[in-house]
Amino acid sequence: MQVSFTMELVYLVIGLGVGLILGINLSVLYSRVFGLRTDAEKKLRQRIRNLEMRIRDKDRYITEAIRSARREEADSE
């Protein structure tokens, strides 16, 4: 039995190649989005959360100091 080399086979091979490439790309993307985090990434995320919390605290302390200074200024007048 002899199979002739037709355009249908070419399209089949091209489709398989494109499908394989897309499948690998989607698999990598899925693992990056939903995959387990590495220890280094977990540590960095924790550090970022800690720094953001410290910035919020600093801003709150500054606003409290400004309010206190305004109250003292108003009381002294």
Topology:
Layout: H1 7-34, H2 39-76
Shape: rod-shaped
Question: Which percent range fits the helix content?
Answer: over 70%
Number of strands: 0
End-to-end separation in angstroms reads: 107 Å
- Fraction in beta strands: under 5%
Main sheet record: none
* Category by helix and strand content: mainly alpha
In N-to-C order, the SSE pattern is HH
Number of helical segments with 4 or more residues: 2
**Mean pLDDT figure:** 88
Keywords:
77 residues
Summary of the model, kept short:
The chain is mainly α. The protein is built from two helices and no strands.
Overall description:
With 77 residues, this protein is mainly α. The chain has 2 domains: 35 residues; 41 residues. 86% of the residues lie in helices and 0% in strands. It is built from 2 helices and no strands. The N and C termini lie far apart (107 Å).
